[in-house]
């Protein structure tokens, strides 16, 4: 079946088998390997992307379900090649990552959270990241990073949408 | 993990979905948010040969104030239920319980209709609908019929929705100002309930209690409801919460532990709903 998805601002058309998972479509057909597969069972959030502006687990969505939708992956977040998105910057400054495997999913979940709750409390950040697992950091610095990004403003996706 | 091959058809309306289901018979399955079905298909525990995607049937996505009840379109996503002002005011237990379903990513995709039509005793929302005494609207080729929540859940992953039918609407009686409580016991943040209790107290002797994961289907704590109706104390009523249920043992809990949890959580729920 032919599908068309607006991926990080540009349209991408592909012929896919209906059983293709969105995450495989992203990594294999679109060549965007920033989105990771961690658990493959809807639990870890490593595969989190924005579908029509909201965080979803792309291992649990069929590519055909994304037909006609807008998709933002971690590659589409930064305003330019030279600059990081404020959320990425905050993860860097607050040491919100170690091995980095969970980071793309964490950042996508965190930006979606700030779109919905621009000034979250620490509890709201922890609950908002419930669907994302990290095996390294102990979460503390991730939570600090999201709070810092919220404080600095622009931690949501408005930056990506504007450009 | 990749699902077995299937044909994919997209329905533009409820009528179209129903005729597609009729055409393909028991080989076909409805796809709503996909957050129960896709994981099962990835594990090849479900291998439908046709998926009828109703995800774009936008006229089944609504939350309407209908006076004495709130009508919710079956394709309304968990996220929209969670943040609905009408539901927060008039059926707060439903908005609250929905905010405890999975995690934000799951709530962005999963629908209330999918959660109910799946018929999983481990799901949170069926217990809430039992406690509220909701009515479900099922549409088939010959029109619609209303099914009481009590008659809707018929067995493990079995509901009153027939092969070529669609769950279209959920009618929830308002519980404005009624006492309520939702108790979900789990080990980790995003997990399913090991046992859960939904409780709506509309008066001194009137309480509705639904249990999560205490039988092969979502059930009432019928003995507790009867005890409250005949004037028993919260403690005495909670002590019989597991009566008549047949919970299963699994990795998370033995049968005895589940029974214990049902009694303890029902006690907490009654206390909170009565305060
Ligand atoms: C990681 C994760 C955690 C979760 N945690 C919880 C939790 O804590 N508590 C909880 O209650 N749930 C939980 N869920 C399940 C979640 O609530 C699902 O969204 C929901 O059970 C199914 O809704 P859906 O729209 O995704 O349905 P789908 O997966 O699309 O469909 C489920 C079933 O219902 C049928 N169906 C769907 N819609 C209709 C309809 N309108 N008419 C007739 N048949 C229909 C389908 O054919 C299928 O058999 C979790 C899911 C995941 C992936
Ligand atoms: S890979 Fe999708 S949730 Fe883990
Ligand atoms: S930084 Fe290693 S999994 Fe999170």
What report would you give on this structure?
The complex is a heterodimer of chains A (163) and B (275). Chain A folds into two domains: 2-76, Beta-grasp domain (Ubiquitin-like (UB roll)); 86-151, DNA polymerase, domain 1, CATH 1.10.150.120. Helices cover 34% and strands 14% of the residues of chain A. Chain A has helices at 22-29, 86-93, 103-116, 122-128, 140-152, 158-162; strands spanning 2-7, 10-15, 48-51, 54-57, 70-72. A five-stranded mixed beta sheet of chain A has the order 2-1-5-3-4, covered by helices on one side. In chain A, helix 2 packs across helix 5. Chain A starts with a strand and ends with a helix. The model of chain A is unreliable at 159-163 (pLDDT under 50). The longest helix of chain B is centred in the C-terminal third of the chain and has 20 residues, at 255-274. The termini of chain B are far apart. At the A-B interface, strand 4 and helix 3 of A face helix 2 and helix 6 of B. The structure holds flavin-adenine dinucleotide and FE2/S2 (inorganic) cluster (2 copies).
Can you describe this structure in just a few lines?
The complex is a heterodimer of chains A (163) and B (275). Chain A is an alpha+beta fold and 163 residues long.
Kindly list the characteristics that best describe this protein.
heterodimer; A: 163 residues; DNA polymerase, domain 1; five-stranded mixed β-sheet; 5 strands; disordered C terminus; B: 275 residues; Uridine Diphospho-n-acetylenolpyruvylglucosamine Reductase, domain 2; Enolase-like, domain 1; five-stranded antiparallel β-sheet; 33% helix; 25% strand; globular; binds flavin-adenine dinucleotide; binds FE2/S2 (inorganic) cluster
């Amino acid at each position: 079946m032919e599908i068309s998805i607006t991926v990080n601002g540009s349209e991408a058309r592909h012929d896919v088998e209906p059983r293709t998972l969105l995450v495989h479509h992203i990594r294999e057909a679109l060549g965007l390997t920033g989105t990771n597969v961690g658990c493959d069972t809807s639990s870890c959030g490593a595969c989190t992307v924005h579908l029509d502006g909201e965080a979803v687990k792309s291992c649990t969505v069929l590519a055909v379900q994304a037909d006609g939708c807008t998709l933002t992956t971690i590659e589409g977040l930064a305003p330019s090649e030279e600059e990081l998105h404020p959320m990425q910057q905050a993860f860097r400054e607050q040491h919100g990552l170690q091995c980095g495997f969970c980071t793309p999913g964490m950042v996508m979940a965190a930006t979606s959270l700030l779109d919905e709750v621009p000034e979250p409390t620490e509890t709201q950040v922890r609950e908002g990241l419930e669907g994302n697992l990290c095996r390294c950091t102990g979460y503390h610095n991730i939570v600090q990073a999201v709070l810092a990004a919220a404080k600095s403003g622009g931690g949501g996706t408005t930056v990506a949408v504007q450009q | 993990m990749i699902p077995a091959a299937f044909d994919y058809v997209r329905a533009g309306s409820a009528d179209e979905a129903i005729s597609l289901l009729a055409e393909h018979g028991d080989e076909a399955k409805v796809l709503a948010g996909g957050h129960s079905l896709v994981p099962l298909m990835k594990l090849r525990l479900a291998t439908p040969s046709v998926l009828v995607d109703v995800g774009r049937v936008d006229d089944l996505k609504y939350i309407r104030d209908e006076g004495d009840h709130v009508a919710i379109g079956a394709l309304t996503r968990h996220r929209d239920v969670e943040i609905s002002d009408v539901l927060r005011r008039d059926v707060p237990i439903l908005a609250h319980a929905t905010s405890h379903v999975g995690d934000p990513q799951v709530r962005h995709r999963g629908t209330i209709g999918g959660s109910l039509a799946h018929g999983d005793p481990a799901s949170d929302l069926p217990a809430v609908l039992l406690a509220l005494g909701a009515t479900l609207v099922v549409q088939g080729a010959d029109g619609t019929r209303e099914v009481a929540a009590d008659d809707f859940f018929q067995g493990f992953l079995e509901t009153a929705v027939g092969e070529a039918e669609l769950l279209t609407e959920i009618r929830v009686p308002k519980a404005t100002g009624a006492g309520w409580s939702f108790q979900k016991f789990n080990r980790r943040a995003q997990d399913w309930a090991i046992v859960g209790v939904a409780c709506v107290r509309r008066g001194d002797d009137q309480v509705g209690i639904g249990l999560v994961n205490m039988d092969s289907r979502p059930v009432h704590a019928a003995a507790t409801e009867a005890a409250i109706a005949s004037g028993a104390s919260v403690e005495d009523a909670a002590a019989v919460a597991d009566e008549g249920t047949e919970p299963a043992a699994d990795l998370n809990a033995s049968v005895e532990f589940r029974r214990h949890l049902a009694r303890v959580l029902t006690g907490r729920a009654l206390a909170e709903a009565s305060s």
